[in-house]
Amino acid sequence: MTGEQQAATEPTPGVGGDRHDPSTPRYDDVSQLHDTWSTPPGIIGWLSAVNHRTVGLRFIITAFVFLLLGGLLALVMRLQLMSPDSAILSADRYNQFFTLHGVTMMFLFAVPMAEGFAIYVTPLLIGTRDMAFPRLNAFGYYVYLIGGVALYVSLFLDVAPDAGWFNYPTLSGKTYSPGARIDVYTTIITFVEVSALVAAVELVATIFKQRAPGMSLSRMPLFVWAILITSLMILFAMPGVIVASVMLALDRMADTHFFVPSGGGDPLLWQHLFWWFGHPEVYIILVPGLGFISSIVTVFSRRPMFGYTAIVLSLIATGIISFGLWVHHMFTTGVPELGSSFFTAASMLIAIPAGVQIFCWIATIWGGRPVLRTPLLFVIGFIIVFVIGGISGVMVASVQFDSQVHDTYFVVAHLHYVLFGGMVFPTFGAFYYWFPKIVGRMLSERLGKWNFWLLLIGFNVTFFPMHQLGFKGMPRRVYSYDDAMGWGAENLIATVGSWIVAAGMLVFIVNVIRSWRNGEVAGDDPWNADSLEWLTPSPPPQYNFAHIPVISSRWPLWDQDRAGVYDVVSGIRSDRREVVVTSAIEADVQGLSVLARPSLTPLALALGCSVAFVGAIWSLIWVPVGAVLAYLAMAVWHWPVHDERTPPWRTPERDPRLDSTEST
Amino acid sequence: MMQVQSALDPAGAGSASIASLWWFMFAIGTVVFIGVMVATAWAFVRHRRATPAAEPLAFDKRVDDADDKRASRVVGIAAATTVAILIVTFALSLGTSRANARLATEDGAEIEIVGVQWWWEVRYLDSLPSRVVRTANELHLPAGRSVRLKLRSRDVIHSFWAPNLHGKMDMIPGRENTIWVRADRPGTYRAQCAEFCGLQHTRMAMAVVIHEAPEYDAWLESLRAPARIQSDSLAIAGAAAFVRLPCAACHMIRGTDALGQAGPDLTHFARRLTIAAGELPNTPANLSAWLANPQAIKPGNHMPNVSLSPADLSALVAYLSGLQ
Amino acid sequence: MNVRAVLDVRTLSPYSYRNDGALWWGMMGMIVIESAVFAMLAASYFYLKTQSAEWPLGGYDAPKLLLPSINTGVLIASSLVMHWADKGVAKNDQRRLRVGMIVAALLAAMFLVLKYVEYSDVPYRWDTNAYGSIVWTIIGFHSVHVMVLLAKTMVVATLAMRGYFDPYRRLGVIINGMYWHFVVAVWIPLYVMLYWSPRW
Ligand code: HEA
Ligand code: HEA
Ligand code: CUA
Ligand SMILES: [Cu+2]
C-alpha cells in the first residue's frame, strides 16, 4: 500500500469512497456499489441472477403458487368427500390428488416458503450484502422449480404418484405399482431435497461467517437462530429420505430387494428411513414459523423478547429431540412395546420446549404494550390453532390411543392443526410483517383483518370436525364413503370450511395485488422495529446496506439511539462483491470475501441434473447425458475467473494472498 | 345390520381402556387449552385501557423489571405444570398399554387374518391341522374370551381395525403381527382396512360378529363342515357352472372341485352378511349384480368381469345363496 | 442516517482461503450430508442384518479379505500422497504438487480397478437378495465417489499443470484435498462393516 492510501485507512468520521483514479480499487462508494451488485438487464441477466433477494423472492412467490395449487387439489378432494358416494373424482384420481396435495404442501410449499424467507431476510437481519454462495443459491431455486413443475406435468400426463406422501412399499414397489408414477415420486423427492440441502448448507455458512461485526451468537435475532437450527436439522434429516428413495428406485429399476420380503428385504426399512427424515421434517417446517412468531411478537409488543435465552435453548432442544421421535409414526407396525414407550416419552418431552416458547411469547405480550396489527393477529391465530394441534399431538404420542386414531381423520386433523397453525399462520404474519420491506408498501390492514378472520374461522370449521370423524372410524385416504357410515354431516361442514379458507386466501391475493401498486408507502421502518433489515430503505438497494453496521446489542435499532449515529464498517471495496467475514461465535472481523457475480452456470447445472434425474424416469440413457452436462457446468463454475474490473490478484496494495477465485 | 363404527362406544376390553384414556386426556387437554387461551387473553386485556388502538407504533423502552420477575415466576410454574401433566399422561398411557397387554392368555384361541388387496382371508387356527378352517371377509369372536389375532399380508401393507373392539394393527408382508383382543358385548360391528393399500383401500372392510361363547363354539364347528350339497336343480346347475367357468380357478368351495386360492373362500358364502369385503349386503340381487359386473361395483378389484349367460348367472346366484 | 466508521477493513485480506472461511463451512456442510448418507446406508445394512436369520443371506461365505484389505491400503496411500502434494504447494514446490496429484489419482484409479476385479468375482449380485442389494449399493455409491474425486482432480490438476497454484492461492487444492480425505476416511468404517462384521 502506498503511504497515502495507508493514511486513508484510519477511521474517519463519515465514510466516502476515493473516487479519483478508476484503476485503483475504490471503497465504500455507494454509487459504484449499485453497479457492482446489480443484475445485468435482459432475459439472460434475469436467468443469471444470483442476488439473495431475487432468489429469495422467487422462492416465496413460487412456493405461494404451489400453496394455491395444493390447496386447489384439496378443494376438489373436499368436494368429493362433501357427500357420500360422490363421483367427482375416480378412486384413481383421488389417490393422485391426495398424494400430490401432501407432497406439494410438504415439499413444494412449506419448506421452500420458509427457505425463501430465510434467504431473503437472513442476510438483511445479520447485516451482510449477500449469502456466502450466491450461485449455489440460484442453483437451488432452479432445481426446486424444475422439480415442482415436473410434478404437476406428471398430473396432466396421468403419471402422478398415487401412494401417499410417505409412499410405503410394498405398495410402491414395482409389483404393485408398475408404471412411472412412483418413479416420478422418487425422482422428484430426491431432486427437491437437493434444493433444500443446498439452501441449508448455504444458510449455515452465511450465518456463521457473515454476521455483522459484533453480532455475537448471543445477539443474533431469534429468527436467525430458528433458521440456523432448521438448516442443521435439514443436513442430518434429508439424507434419510434420499437414501430411501434411491433404494426404492433401485428396487424398481434394478431388481434389488431392499423392501421386498421374498428377497430378504423388509418394507419396514423404508418406514424407518422415511420417518427418520419425516419427523424432523415437520419440525423443519415448524421452526422457521416459530422464528416468524418471535420476530413479530417482539416488534408488536414493543419490548425486547422475554426469555430470549430460554427460547434459544428451546429451539436447540427441539432440534435435537426431533431426531428421537420417528417411531411414533410406526406405533401400529408392531414395534416392541418397550421401544415404543421410549418414543412416547420422547414425543411428550418435546411438548416442553414448545410450551416454554409459547409461555415466553405470552409473557412478552403481557409485559409489553401490544399493538394489534395484522401480524400480531396471526400470532394469536397461531397460538389458538397450534396449541390444539400440539395437544392432539401429545395424545397420539400414546401408543394405545394412537392404535385407535392412527391413519384416521383424527391424525389428519392433528397434522393440519400443527401445520396450518405452526406454519401457515406464522407465514401469513410474516407476509404482513415483511411485505413493506420487500415491496416498499404496506398491505391493507382492513383486508388483513378479513384475511385473518376468514382463515381462522374457515380453518377450524374445516378441520375440527375431523377429530370426530376419526373416532367414528373414518380412515384417511378414502375416496368415498357409504351414507350408512354416518360421516356425512362432519364432512359437509369440513367442505364448507375449506371454501371459507379459500375465500381468505383470495382476500390475501387481492390485498397483495392492490397494495403492490397502491399501498401506503412504507418508508424504511414502518413498525419501529428492532432488527437490522429496517435500517435500510424499503425495498433494500442491490447491496442491502450502504455501510455495514457494527453491532453492540441484541436489539440494535432500539438500543442504538435513532437520533444519533450508527457505527459502521469502512474500507469495503465497492468495485466488486466484497463482504465482511467474521468469526463464528463472537463475530469479530476476520477478513473479507469476494462473492460470485451473476452467472448462467447455476441454470446450466440445474438443467444437467434435471436431464439426469427426470430423464431417468423414462430411460436410464439420460443419466450419463445429464451427468456429463452437469460435470461441464461444474467445471465452468469452479474455473477461476478474473474479475476484469479487479486488478490482477497480485496487486501490490493488497495483501498478496488475495485470492481472485470467486467463492462458490 | 352392522353398527356404525365408533372407537368411543367400546364393545371390547381394548377399546374400553383406550376410551377411558381418551376421556382423561380430553379433560386435561381442554384444561390446558383453556389455560393457554385465558393467559393469552389476559396478556392483551391488561393493556386495553393503556393503549389506544390508533396509537403509533413507538418503541417503548421501559421494561418493567418487577413485571418481568413476576412473569419469570409464572412461566416457571407453567413449565413445571407442563412437565407434571406430561408425566401423568405418560404414566396413564403406559398403564393402558399394560392393561391391554394383560389380555394375552396361555390358552386363547388363535385366528389368523391375512390382508389381500382388497379383502381378508380368515383362518380359525387349531392345534390339529385338520380342524383349521379357512374362510373370508367376516370375523367371528366369542364374547368374554381373549383371542389372539395373527395378522399377515399377502401383498401390500394393510391394517386391521375394528374400532369398537380394539386398536388397529398393521399387516405387513413378510412379518406376522399379533394382537390380543377380548370382545365383551355381543353384536355385529364393522372392521376395515386402515392403511392405504392401493386403489380400493376405501372398500376393504368386513363384519365382526361377536357371539356368546357357547354359540360361538357351535358356529365354528359348523364352519368346519364342507359345502352343503344342494338338491335344487338351479343350484346344481350353478355348482357345475362354477367349476366350468373360471370361478374355480380363484375360489375355493370345500367339498367341490373348486380349489382356487386367489380369491375369497366361498364354502359358506351364504352365511356372510356382506359381499366383496363389506361392499354390499349379501342379498341375491346384490350377488347377481356383483357377479355380472364386479368391476362396476368395486372398480379395479382383482376379480375380473366374467361374461355370464343369464342362465349361468341365475344358476350361480342360486348356488352361492344356498351355501349356508 | 448518520454513520460513524468505527472499523476499517481495508487492509484485511480476503478470507476465503483460511480454514474456517465460509467455503470451509460449506465443504463441511457437504461432508455432513454425505456422512449422513453413508450412515443411513450403514444403518440399513445393520438393520437388514438383524432382520435376517443368516448373514450373508443365501448361505454365501463372508466376503474374502485379502484383496479388499490391500485395496483399502491403496486408498489410504492415495490420501497420504494427496496430503503430501498439498504440503508441497504450500512450499511452492510445483513439481511436488503435480507429481503428488498424479500419483494420488493413479492410486485411486487402481482402487477402482481392484474393486472391479473383486466384484466381478463375487457369487451374488444386487438382484440376488437383500444382502447383495445393500452390499452392491454401498460399493457402487462409494466407487462413484471415487470417480467423482478423479473427475474433480482432473480439473484441479489441469490448473496445477498451468502453474496456477502457489502458497497463497491454493484454495482449490485444499478443498479438493478435504473431499479426497473424506472419501477415504468414510471407506474405513465401510470396509470394517462390509468385510469384518459378517464374521462377528
Ligand atoms: C408442523 C408440524 C408438526 C408439529 C409441530 C407436530 C407436533 C407434534 N406431533 Fe405431529 N404430525 C405432523 C406434523 C407435526 N406434528 C404430521 C404432518 C403428521 C402426520 C404425518 C402423516 O402421517 O402423514 C404428524 C403425526 C404425528 C404422530 C403420528 C400419528 C399417527 O400417524 O398415528 C404423532 C404421534 O406421536 C405426533 C405427535 C406430535 C407431538 C407430540 C408433537 C409436539 O411437538 C407438540 C408439542 C406442542 C404442544 C403440546 C403445544 C404447546 C405446549 C403447551 C401449551 C404446553 C402445555 C401442553 C401440555 C401439558 C400438553 N404427530
Ligand atoms: C402445510 C401443509 C398443508 C396445508 C396448508 C394443507 C391444507 C389443506 N388440506 Fe391438507 N394435507 C397435508 C398438508 C397440508 N394440507 C398433508 C401432509 C396431508 C397428508 C397427505 C397424505 O395422506 O399423503 C394432507 C391431507 C389432507 C386431507 C386428507 C386426504 C385423505 O387422507 O384422503 C384433506 C381432506 O380434507 C386435506 C384437506 C386440506 C384442506 C381443505 C386444506 C386447505 O387449508 C387448503 C387451503 C388452500 C386453498 C383453499 C387454496 C386457495 C385457492 C384459491 C383461492 C384458488 C386459487 C386459484 C388458482 C390457483 C387459479 N388435506
Ligand atoms: Cu387394505 Cu387398506
Ligand atoms: Cu412425528
Describe this structure in words.
The complex is a heterotrimer of chains A (664), B (324) and C (200). Chain A is mainly alpha-helical and 664 residues long. Chain A contains 20 helices and 3 strands. In chain A, 61% of the residues lie in helices and 3% in strands. In chain A, helix 5 runs antiparallel to helix 6 (134-156). By secondary structure, chain B is an alpha+beta fold. In chain B, the strands form 3 sheets. In chain B, strands 3-2-1-5-8 form a 5-stranded mixed sheet, with no helix packed on it. A 5-stranded mixed sheet of chain B has the order 4-10-9-6-7, with helices on one face. In chain B, strands 11-12 form a two-stranded antiparallel ribbon. Chain C is mainly α and 200 residues long. In chain C, helix 1 packs antiparallel against helix 4 and helix 1 runs parallel beside helix 5. Chain C is flat. Chains in contact: A-B, A-C. Chains A and B meet through helix 5, helix 9, helix 11, helix 12 and helix 13 of A and helix 1, helix 2 and strand 9 of B. Strand 1 (565-570) of chain A pairs parallel with strand 1 (2-8) of chain C. One heme-A sits between chains A (282, 285-286, 328-329, 347, 350-351, 354-355, 358, 387, 390-391, 393-394, 396-397, 402, 406, 411, 414-415, 418-419, 422-423) and B (32, 36, 82, 85-86).
